[in-house]
Amino acid sequence: MKTTEIAIVGGGPGGMCAALVAANQGAKVTLFDSAKILGGQLIKQTHRFFGSEKEHAGTRGIQICAMLEGEIRKNENIDLHLDATVVAAYENKVIAYEEGDKYEKMACKKIIVAAGASEKMLAFMNNDLPGVYGAGAVQTLMNVHGVIPGQKVLMIGSGNIGLIVSYQLMQAGVKVEAIIEGAPAIGGYKVHASKVRRMGVPILTSHTILEAYGTECVEGAIICRLDEKWDPVPGTEKRIDVDVICLSVGLSPLTELLWQVGCKMKYIPSLGGYVPARDENLETTVSGFYVAGDASGVEEASAAMIEGKIAGLAAAASLGYDRHYGTLRKEYLDDIWVLRSGPVGEKIRQGLQILAE
């Protein structure tokens, strides 16, 4: 059986930062990602990041990805496995993974789960018609492969992703007919909403989609207004001719490996669904298993990177690689506290408080 000191599942922003911090402390790290390209969500994020200079404010996600990947590939303490899917984890810290046509097992001293999140679906009539996409899939098509999904789009969801992808669609020459939002207020940053509104795109709050229509693919959608109880208002139905319906209705943490080993889990809607209980070092209730990034609760990529640093530092320190541990730990904890401060981070703070109870 192969061995490693720290196995990290997921090569997105959280996993990459966890690998770098742990490896720079001196630990031997094995980093797994099921994709052929390292970077997770960063590979399709062409917008500039907010936050402080430490969180790469003003830098595009694709540039951050390239920078982190360059550091990982030249770090001798990191063994990188792409196109390798970790399919099982066991309480004795053994993982099983598929790589190519091989099925392997690896004994680990510590495991960090940074598997990210999956897109949520929305229930409406004919939601299985070709032309119904998740916002992440649209981003991948355009920003990774250079392919537009269609010509006219209805965006469902006004969070940051819905607003950003709408703007990117327009930059690619695609018409966004409207953005609809079930809540009575826009969910994303005002700066993103203002950009799409200036380009003539209506944002309809307290609205939902009733059905998609078309024969072999999407030809349009029927939307309506919602009342204060989130029930459709009769007589407000409206047909919109589009060939793409893009869903940006949230993400669900990918926590299957943590369920497998028996971590204590708690359902917290503001964090995306079921998330693992963990301490300040991001160690779960099963000793030696850590979590970082969207698998711990859905946030921005900046939060995932800091959580990766915290988990990587803690896992390495538990193995005796504890150079400047106190200083670095305080720095990372201060950074995550600042990132979650203010009204923007209120939902996350409330979720974490519930998790701690």
Automatic annotation (TrEMBL):
Gene3D superfamilies: FAD/NAD(P)-binding domain (3.50.50.60)
Protein name as catalogued: Pyridine nucleotide-disulfide oxidoreductase
Domain of life, source organism: Bacteria
Organism: Formimonas warabiya
UniProt entry keywords in alphabetical sequence: Oxidoreductase
All residue ranges annotated as the FAD/NAD(P)-binding domain in the record: 5-308
InterPro entries: FAD/NAD-bd_sf, FAD/NAD-binding_dom, Metab_Enz_Cyan_OpOx_G3PDH
Molecular function, one GO term: oxidoreductase activity
Keyword flag Kinase: no
